[in-house]
Amino acid sequence: MLDQLLRIIGLDDGFIENLSDVTFAVQSPVILAVGLIALVPVAIWIYIRQRANLPSAPLPLRITLTATRVFVLALLIVMLAGPYARLQLKNERKPIVAMLFDASQSMDLESGPFPESDARKLATAAGYRANDGPIDSELRREFDRKTRRKLAETVVTAQQSALLEPLRKSYELQAFRFGREPSPLALDWAKPEFAEWNGAGDRGSYLGTAIGHVLNEAAGRPIAGILLFSDGENTGGRSPLEAARAAGLNKTPIFTIPTGTTNRLKDIAIVDVSTSGQLTIGDTGKVGVTLESQGYDKKLVKVLLKDGDGKVLDTKELNLLGREQQQIELMFKPTEAGTRYLTVEVPPLVDEDLKSNNADVTMVRVTDEKLRILYIEGLPRWDYRFLKNAMIRDTGLAGRVNPGPDLLLEAEWRRLPEANRNNLPILPKNLDEISQYHTIVLGDASANVLTPELCGLIDQAVREKGVGLIVQGGPLAMPHQANAVLQGLLPVQLASGTRGLFANAARQFRIELSPDGAIHETMRLHDDIGRNQNTWNGMLPYQWAVAAVRLQPGATALAVTPQVENNYGKMPLIAFHTVGQGRVMLVGTDSTWLWRKNVADRFFYKFWGQSLRFVARRDPKLASVSRIEVNPLKAQPNEEARIEVMAVRADGTVLTDANVNVQIFGPNLQTSVVLAADANVKGRYTGTFTPPREGDYRLTYLPVGSVEKPVESRMKVMPAPEEYRYPNVNRLALSQIAGESGGKLVELPDLATIPGFLKGEIRTTQLKREKTIWDNWLFLSVLVVVYSLDVGLRRLAGLS
User: Fold this and answer.
1) Closest residue by Cα to residue 450 from 486, 424, 418
2) Other C-beta atoms within 10 Å of 249: how many?
3) What residues form the membrane-spanning segments (predicted)?
4) Residue 538 and residue 399 share a domain
5) How far apart are CA 800 and CA 795, in angstroms?
6) Is 165 helix (H, G, I), strand (E, B) or coil?
7) pLDDT tens-digit profile of 238-295?
8) CB-neighbour burial class of residue 184 (10 A; exposed 0-12, middle 13-18, buried 19+)
9) Whole-prediction pTM value?
């Protein structure tokens, strides 16, 4: 009832919820005081006048009429004084201290064995009594076998009086566990208890993402410090050093606490496996393997390459060197087309501390047909030189005219007699000739060689025959000087009147994978999500990019330039879409050759080789039948996969329904996913699926009207070994993170020293609000009712 009355006089929830802090006052106290004092003689005068004018009226009536008029006058005096409500709140906000607990797979490794001195310090910090002399063997084993995560939680809990109590008095404590994404911890800081955390499916270690989350969640509030409990291994997400620098700019020091022994594990680890990604039947496939070992110097081991069914394809022996990484190359010859899963393995040794990182799985695609490629370039720029040589070495590529890819360099073409330029056999003259190619690559070539006739043929070949097209931009001509037909094929809308965007020295362009690009086959340099992300994040900056305003409707961005944004978001750098029967991709920089730094063609041509095959023309026979594709073919549990269906009825007509259903069969799973129609391409349907657990998955689609077997695609889901590639505690990385932020590395037994390093004061803010309470319908209603009562009583009594 009271709340309703307060709302009627104009007070909102802010006043009502803090009613104890609300006071009432008037804007003109003098008017109120003088008015009320003057009201006393006025009231007496009114009564005397009523008695003189109404001598025959009963006494109660005269008193009532006097009271109504006095009340009206009193109400008017109050309104003239301007009554209002005042709310004053004091809010004390403590600076934040955030604790980040790494809960990734590597944190489930045993934290020991510890040296004697470290074990004693840890036992004391964890609340155990360590007597003089050698530490108790049972206690030693207990500490050595604790997981890194459990060790950190045990010590923090034991440091209640030395760490948590001092922090609670001056700071607001927050806690998060994190793998790939942070998850808040609800702890009673007076008696903290860490519940078990089910981080299944989120078992990467994204240190930078966790630090950035704390900074973002603070929303401008001061953060006195971040305590990071981790083994220092980062497997993806935002760069930890970049996040640490952002924390430093925010005056937020990070105190990194290594959780684990200083001793290095006795271990053999496969830290990297690389392949070209694509092979043709009969080619010699090469699998590059990088190993790292500790404690097995000069030990002779075997490195095995196995097929998916366990058959050994190649074996080599290697003498281990504990001081450095070692590379070895294994080979095999594929005899069947399809997706091949290959396992590289070093048989575990009996005394290894960690045996789960002795094997890794990679994937290659084997085709039974050579792709015909036409590559037209302007000048012999660096990208052309390296891409040309890589394509020539790729035995899965050919040309229409030449045994290898057909290459046309405009700089050489210009040196030909003008009469011979357009008669080159390599230049297609009609649709039949150009549609023999699977993929056409256009570099920074001008309209002199890309004539309107040739552009028209390319457009027709893409739309009608499904020929793939890759356009790599350049500052001289492509794509800003291309004719309208060619620009109409691009997956982006271009800014007019510009040759592209040039970076300045202070803000160079850097590539950033989009969410779609993170799972797309063309951008997969590594099978592991986090490792792939880290590799792209580490690419050298580029100085020029195509001036793309936005994506075309239905197009997909695989990578963006985050330094350039507009109302449509970050500027697309690498994008593709489907045009008619074909796919068109834009590579919006001329500096992909920089991806060769220190690794030659490994990343550079893996991207280009996968792109050439992704957009390539399909078998014409498949145009009249349905097909289904899933991407990626190899994924991790809870990693999103994209599904694409080209739906054709049994009679050969393209399906135009609003959606289609795809059946999914996996380990202990049978479900369906609804795919939505692509508004720009008839018969194309897309959607996503997230596999919940490891195993083999089969995705099927039954064409409308078909009585035969459904079309299908398969994917393999397996946990990535990325967390175990480098199992030792990375104190150097933790020290760098702390240094970039202005913090320091603190050993686990020394947690009690951290409060002395923190700086931050409690901020008191005052909220003051005022609200007038007389200018509302309630006051007016009371005034009208009382005045009406006066008039009504006079009329009923027969008085004038």
Assistant:
1) 486
2) 11
3) 30-48, 60-85
4) yes
5) 7
6) helix
7) 889 989 999 999 999 999 999 988 888 889 999 888 887 778 887 888 898 999 999 8
8) exposed
9) 0.73
